[in-house]
């Protein structure tokens, strides 16, 4: 977060990549030497694989390794028109929407309360943020135990309400477990950002607002919420990216690595088709489609950072 | 006013309950034996087994994996966490230093090439990345595990921003005193970046330690398994087991989360500073 004053020129230049030091070294070879390790890694492990993904999305590769044929956009057409892909894409959309909304909403509520209370504020903060450090597959593992058919307390509890919950068997029940675990894992990051956003709102603004507007609820929606909006937009993008990509570990564990008829996300399908199904062309075409999605999200994200400089 | 405070605390306590309970249950369950757990469900008290499941997971090979025990996986997790964090910090500090403090023709081109990597997470280019690492003969090596993860430029971008916020006068003064690029970097820039380095180190260590998909693909040899990678092994044993080793599975889950959680909690203020200011 740039704590720059409104319209700070330098901060805006940072985003555009135009910033320059007034004084710089003029040694010719040194900068290349310093950049070499980073550029070498980027070239070998980023540019090459990315180019390879794009290339193989236009080819039909023989699964036994006997060469490949150029097929133009066939892989893309096959991917987009297959009913399974549509189903997975729809699930990814719903999953992403729910995980994002639920984890942002819960985190915002908790951050507002944690910012307000005086007693125990730092204990609450610690207890609400430490899950950040838990790996997604670990979250998934604890999740499947809580949702386990034989031993899971959640299964026993909802059975009292008449819900016969079966993860791994029922499509919607499995999706439910994935969403709960993913939201649990994501609340801490959102909480940290919202809380620091709230704490950076100046005390004088808050005091002025509390004189003008006595209803705490209205004050939140008319003063605090708009001031938090830039953080919120930024987190929205972060959360969409998380729900689409970083939940891989949770999904893999909840499915116990055997998807069957259960819901999977688009990234999981790239992995399944590429590594289990040996459909290299199809998997690459899906990768390229996802690259386009990420590309758009990143562009939006950087535009938002640029705008956010004016707010904070 | 008083009532308002109470409802605030109730909401916060509910949040804490939601975040903490799953892990507490996992821990309590790990102190019982598998048969008890299978018969009566997850446990709500400390069991008679104590921490023996942890001993089993750490020292005995077999069960989930056939060749390695938890100590080896712990070692591999530490190598991945430290290797990734240190490698990333060194490489990205050097690159950011070059971009910010040197005038050379390719500067903005290099910046954009590095910046590009922020656009695509590893997950979307996973198959070609795997093939390339395989071609280079880096499957089942620590470098194959760590180096491709460093390809994303988050660290470079972060250090670049930080260096830009360092006052120009420092370099002017250093140059008047006759300091060259290397001396300026080691004697001035690194010391003033200490807090930033610590913050980034924590974030990167947690990120490296928690990797799952990449280690799953790159390490097929059990002696390279990390604790998080070991979870995949648990699942494969579970499918078809009569009474799954719930206690050991939970012990492994707790072991796999303990080091990053301790680091994040202990160095909380640095970690939050790094997270909020790096924005990525």
Can you tell me the CATH class of chain B? Mainly Alpha
What is the structural class of chain B? Answer: mainly alpha
Strand order of the largest sheet of chain A: 1-2
Helices of chain B, by number, come to 15
Report the end-to-end length of chain B measured between terminal Cα atoms.
39 Å
**What top-tier CATH class of chain A fits best?**
Mainly Alpha
Order of helices and strands of chain A: HHEEHHHHHHHHHHH
What overall form of chain A do the CA principal axes indicate? globular
Count of extended strands of chain B:
0
> In one word, what is the shape of chain B?
globular
The CATH superfamily of chain A is identified as MetI-like
Supply the helix-strand structural class of chain A.
mainly alpha
The second-level CATH architecture of chain A is: Orthogonal Bundle
Low-confidence stretches of chain A: 1-18
Q: For the report, how would you describe the main beta sheet of chain B?
A: none
Mean pLDDT of chain B: 87
The third-level CATH topology of chain B is MetI-like fold
Question: Explain this structure to me?
Answer:
The complex is a heterodimer of chains A (312) and B (280). Chain A has 13 helices and two strands. With 312 residues, chain A is mainly alpha-helical. Chain A has one domain (84-311): MetI-like fold, CATH 1.10.3720. In chain A, strands 1-2 form a two-stranded antiparallel sheet. In chain A, strand 1 (59-61) and strand 2 (68-70) form a beta hairpin. Chain A is globular. With 280 residues, chain B is mainly α. Chain B has a single domain (72-278), classed as MetI-like (MetI-like fold), CATH 1.10.3720. Chain B contains 15 helices and no strands. Chain B has helices at 2-30, 34-40, 52-59, 70-101, 107-116, 126-135, 142-150, 154-165, 168-176, 181-192, 194-209, 213-218, 227-238, 246-266, 268-278. In chain B, helix 3 packs across helix 4 (70-101). The model of chain B has no long low-confidence stretch (mean pLDDT 87). The interface between A and B is large, with 100 and 107 residues. Chain A: Residues 89-301 form the ABC transmembrane type-1 domain. Chain A: It comes from Roseibium marinum. Chain A: Part of the ABC transporter complex UgpBAEC involved in sn-glycerol-3-phosphate (G3P) import. Probably responsible for the translocation of the substrate across the membrane.
């Amino acid at each position: 977060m740039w704590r720059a004053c409104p319209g700070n020129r330098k901060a805006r230049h940072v985003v555009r990549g135009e910033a320059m030091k007034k004084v710089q070294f003029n040694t010719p070879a040194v900068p290349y030497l310093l950049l070499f390790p980073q550029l070498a890694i980027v070239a070998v492990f980023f540019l090459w694989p990315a180019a390879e993904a794009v290339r193989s999305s236009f080819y039909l590769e023989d699964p036994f390794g006997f060469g490949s044929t150029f097929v133009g956009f066939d892989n893309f057409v096959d991917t987009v028109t297959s009913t399974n892909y549509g189903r997975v894409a729809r699930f990814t959309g719903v999953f992403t929407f729910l995980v994002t909304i639920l984890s942002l909403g819960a985190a915002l509520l908790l951050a507002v309360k944690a910012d307000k209370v005086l007693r125990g504020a730092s204990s609450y903060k610690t207890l609400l943020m430490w899950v950040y450090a838990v790996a997604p597959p670990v979250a998934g593992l604890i999740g499947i135990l809580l949702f386990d058919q034989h031993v899971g307390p959640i299964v026993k509890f909802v059975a009292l309400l008449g819900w016969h919950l079966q993860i791994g068997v029922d499509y919607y029940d499995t999706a439910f477990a994935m969403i709960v675990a993913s939201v649990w894992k994501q609340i801490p990051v959102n909480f940290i950002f919202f809380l620091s956003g709230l704490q950076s709102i100046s005390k004088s603004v808050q005091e002025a607002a509390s004189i003008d507007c006595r209803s705490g609820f209205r004050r939140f929606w008319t003063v605090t919420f708009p001031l938090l909006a830039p953080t919120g937009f930024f987190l929205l993008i972060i959360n969409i990216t998380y729900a689409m990509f970083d939940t891989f570990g949770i999904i893999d564990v909840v499915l116990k690595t055997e998807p069957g008829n259960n819901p999977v996300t688009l990234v999981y399908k790239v992995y399944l088709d590429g590594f289990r199904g040996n459909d290299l062309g199809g998997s690459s075409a899906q990768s390229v489609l996802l690259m386009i999605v990420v590309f758009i999200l990143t562009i939006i994200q950087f535009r938002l950072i640029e705008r956010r400089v004016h707010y904070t | 006013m008083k009532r308002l405070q109470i409802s605030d605390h109730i909401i916060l306590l509910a949040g804490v309950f939601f975040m903490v309970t799953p892990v507490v249950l996992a821990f309590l369950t790990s102190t019982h034996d598998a048969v008890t757990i299978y018969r009566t469900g997850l446990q709500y008290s400390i069991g008679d087994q104590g921490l023996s499941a942890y001993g089993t997971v750490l020292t005995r090979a077999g069960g989930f994996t056939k060749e390695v025990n938890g100590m080896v996986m712990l070692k591999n997790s530490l190598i991945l966490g430290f290797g990734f964090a240190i490698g990333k910090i060194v490489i990205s500090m050097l690159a950011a230093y070059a971009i910010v403090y040197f005038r050379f023709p390719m500067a903005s081109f290099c910046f954009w090439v590095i910046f590009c990597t922020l656009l695509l997470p590893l997950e979307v280019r996973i198959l070609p990345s795997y093939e390339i690492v395989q071609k280079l003969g880096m499957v089942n090596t620590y470098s194959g595990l760590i180096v491709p993860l460093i390809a994303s430029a988050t660290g470079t971008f972060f250090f670049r921003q930080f260096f830009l916020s360092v006052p120009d006068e420092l370099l002017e003064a250093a140059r008047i005193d006759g300091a060259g690029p290397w001396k300026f970097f080691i004697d001035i820039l690194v010391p003033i970046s200490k807090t930033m380095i610590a913050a980034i180190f924590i974030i990167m260590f947690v990120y490296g330690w928690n990797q799952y998909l990449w280690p799953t693909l790159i390490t097929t040899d059990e002696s390279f398994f990390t604790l998080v990678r070991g979870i995949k092994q648990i699942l494969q044993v579970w499918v078809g087991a009569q009474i799954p080793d719930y206690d050991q599975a939970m012990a492994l889950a707790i072991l796999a989360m303990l080091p990053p959680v301790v680091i994040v909690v202990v160095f909380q203020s640095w970690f939050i500073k790094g997270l909020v200011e790096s924005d990525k």
